[in-house]
Amino acid sequence: MAAKKHPIFDTATTLGKLVAFLGVSTICGVLVAGLMVPAVALAGTTTTSSISFFDDLPDEMTVGTPALSSKILAADGSVIATFYDQNRTEVALENISPFMKNAVIAVEDARYYEHGGIDTRGLIRAVTSMAQGGGRQGASTITQQYVNNVIIQTYAANGENDKIKLGSDKGIGEKVREIKLAISMEKKYSKDEILQGYLNWVLYANGNFGIESAASFYFGVHAKDLTLPQSALLAGVVNSPTVYDPVANPEAAVGRRNLVLAHMLDQGMIDQKQHDEAVASPIGLNIQENRLGCTTAVRAEYFCEYVTNLISNDPAYGKTVEDREKLLLQGGLAITTTLDPGLQDAAQAQLQNFTPMENNPDRVGQSLVTVQPGSGKILAMAQNTKLAPPEGQWKTDYNFNVDRLDANGNSLGGSGGFDVGSTIKPFTFAEWLNSGHKINEIVNASVRKYPAGFQWNNSCGSTGGIYDSNNPDAADDLQNAEEGWYRNLTAREGLYNSLNTATFATAAKLDICNIQKMMTATGIHNGEDPKQPYNLENVSSLLGSGEVAPVIMASAFATFASGGVHCDPIALVSISNAKGDKFPVPSANCKQTVKPEVAAGVNSVLGEVLVRGSGYQIPLQFKPADPLQYNSAAKTGTTNDSQQTWTTGYTKGLVTTSWVGSPEEKNRSNNGLLIANQRISYVDGATYAGKAWQGYMNQVAGFFDVSSFTPPPASMVNAPVTVAPQPAAPKPATPNSGGSDKPADEKPADNKDKKD
């Protein structure tokens, strides 16, 4: 019978593995010993050289802030959206459940508060087990695991994944270095600081880094509120997040949980009753799916995208776009915005009455945007599409409400604005008053021909355009939406009835350069390029053949609502990181740009739009049956063939622009399209845009200032001149028409520079 071989010498492979293992173990043991006892107590050249090798290793480790989730918040602090590379929210140790702290110590490092970073007893146990043919046992302390997590996740956060080494990929040098770093960390930080860092850095499966994110994801609670069985479950996950994933492998997770509970019982952290009740409890998951980015925003996803574009475009948040995006994904930012959740939800709900996302076969675009006068704050920004809609619904990445580009040429994600129609007319009227003309001054609205030789006064450029049916190269004669208004009348009547001929009659007495300056003073600019002013090179632009973004129109009318103080529209209130460092946010730059009396004169006339003018169908009321109106003003707008339709209206406290049109085919008529479950032959600014504005403002305006506007000075009004009897207030030419705001031709007469 052959002699029985010693298992150690069964094969060369076994011997090789064992020798290698013992070599590593010896080195580690000697090096640890070198830190535990005076060097003079050690003898032998091997030991001395090992200690020298150990002393040469780096022993400083700077633990920076881990990659933290950033959140975009509404004005009330509620979360709109979350951004992260590593889903993590850092919390202090006192805000972590005592059960959680004890559970992770019980299962990962029972002698945590006794050792100095390296548990020599655990190390010897692991070596002995392997030498006797047992399975591999972990010997890493919480401190060592913390060091390992910091190294790995810092590389990951910096995009240096090629430097990450896991488990068996590590050489002797990496392992020994981690030992020394763990010991040095124990000298630099307290036990509680290390435990806090560990609990905030470690991975708990499903992309959840840190205990706060894990508690929220798995149970919908904060880390401080974790129960005993919940804490034991999560403490068990960290050993192997894939194996003990509570979602993918609930049985394995529960088994590991119960092992953790047994350790806690053995170590006197809990009593038998607590143990038994926890073991008997169900897993009890309450999964709260992680939301990443604006496509999963709780509300206002296009506003969310607008905010992220503001950050990624601004050098205040990093030298490069990559730096700014990294800050957003890893910087733990709290980005407080101007958005009012109540107004946003009301605006979004209102759109469902007209162009619901699930039933919009003609892809009619609709939006509502609200700006606060005197502050520039964007309080609501809604549109009838989604960034990631259910299959079959209309998808667009374009934000209907904002400019295409910012002042530096960076994308804001906007559609570039739309032809504004007659909503542009109040700015000619404002310059009329600013130039010394009177509200009730008589103008000749009978003039319909503006031939090629007509001299428009423009001191800073040139203005052309032909309206003359006798000229084959020109558009037809200038028209109003209805007959009966081609006569002498007051400038007031011309504006509230939205008469094209009256607008031209006033502009003919003004310097068009000054009209453009008035527009610029209120913030109006080209929707494609905000560095470019609203283009008045063709007189048709006085009737609205120029593209402006809805939020810019709201901001411009807010200048009148606030008594002539213009504020740039703003979306950001504050930005800070987890350390409390503050970042700058853009200012609204509020300043008096229009004379108060001019603003008062405009407000007084636009108030009549909702009483007897083009928007008489859409007055604001406290409630539908109440004849008492809010103090409000508005202007409707309709472009050629009803391609774009608008209402911008306001109280002292809120300005809202409502738009309905075709963002993808800007020249397509809205007439006959399916809107509000009907198809009608003529759509104007009051029909749907006005009704949406009315429904929304009736709901929210009363929560803000609805006091009376300051009246204009008597010297600006002038007594009306007696004129011939006037016809009754205009009525819609067709059912659901909003009145007389339809210009005959709102594109350049030569048709050469009409925009797509």
TrEMBL record:
UniProt xrefs under InterPro entries: Beta-lactam/transpept-like, Glyco_trans_51, Glycosyltr_51/Transpeptidase, Lysozyme-like_dom_sf, PBP_transglycosylase, PCN-bd_Tpept
Cellular component annotations (GO), alphabetically ordered: outer membrane-bounded periplasmic space
Protein name per the record: Glycosyl transferase
Stretches with biased composition (Basic and acidic residues): 742-756
Coiled-coil region(s): none
Positions of the UniProt region annotated as Disordered: 715-756
SUPFAM superfamilies: beta-lactamase/transpeptidase-like (SSF56601), Lysozyme-like (SSF53955)
The keyword Protein biosynthesis belongs to this UniProt entry's keyword annotation: no
Molecular function, one GO term: peptidoglycan glycosyltransferase activity
Record's signal peptide: none
Species, as recorded: Arthrobacter glacialis
Gene Ontology biological-process entries: cell wall organization; peptidoglycan biosynthetic process; proteolysis; regulation of cell shape
Cross-referenced Pfam families: Transgly (PF00912), Transpeptidase (PF00905)
Similarity section: In the N-terminal section; belongs to the glycosyltransferase 51 family. In the C-terminal section; belongs to the transpeptidase family.
